[in-house]
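Action item from last week, closing it out:
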Amino acid sequence: KFDMVRIEGGNIEIGATKEEKIYAENNEYPAHNVSLQTFYMGRFLITQNIWKTVMGYNRSHFKGTSIN
């Protein structure tokens, strides 16, 4: 069982503004509007083992390692 949190959907502008363009990567410009539907997200991080149990695979490059 996972503790899930409801995240309200809405609209947001993402990406670099004209003023920020000189600091932005190519894929960060131009700024644009994005609409997200309401969704649920787990309250806590999950382990690779839980992911593999639920999804049936683990494509992580860091299998069985700590990235502290």
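Closing note: The chain is about 10% helix and 25% strand.
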